[in-house]
Specification:
Layout: E1 2-5, E2 20-23, E3 26-32, H1 47-64, E4 72-79, H2 85-93, E5 103-108, E6 118-125
Helix pairs in contact: 1-2
GO molecular function: deaminase activity
Keywords: Hydrolase
Protein name: Rid family detoxifying hydrolase
């Protein structure tokens, strides 16, 4: 059974997809960009602030599904500039306990939606 997860505390999707889909005990969260859900403005100019906004959007979606970062089993980070990896990694790491941190990949890409510098998606399991 598939359940759509939506919250006003994360940005509204900019295409034909949902913020997240819960299938059984597995939550698939769509990629989140550094967009403020209240104002619709993009956060830019500081990769750590951009990463934190992505993570805060993900946290809101996890909360809407009654889950938390400790239940995340997989994260995917897409970056425009791999040279910013250490700064992104530092901000990302603020949200996880090393004992329960998920598996992850970080991939440099040519471009991202709305030309942002970072996008993060996650999979969580109850």
């Amino acid at each position: 059974m598939k359940k759509i997860i939506q919250t006003p505390d994360a940005p509204t999707p900019i295409g034909p997809y949902n913020q997240a889909v819960l299938s059984g005990n597995t939550l698939y969260i769509s990629g989140q960009i550094p967009m403020d859900p209240k104002s619709g403005e993009l956060i830019s100019g500081d990769i750590q602030k951009e990463t934190r906004q992505c993570m805060n959007n993900l946290k809101a979606i996890l909360n809407a599904a009654e889950m938390g970062f400790e239940q995340v089993v997989k994260a995917s980070i897409f970056v425009k500039e791999m040279g910013q990896f250490s700064q992104i990694n530092e901000a990302y790491g603020e949200y996880f306990d090393p004992a329960t941190a998920p598996a992850r990949e970080t991939v440099e890409v040519a471009n991202l939606p709305k030309y942002v510098n970072v996008e993060i998606s996650m999979i969580a399991v109850r």
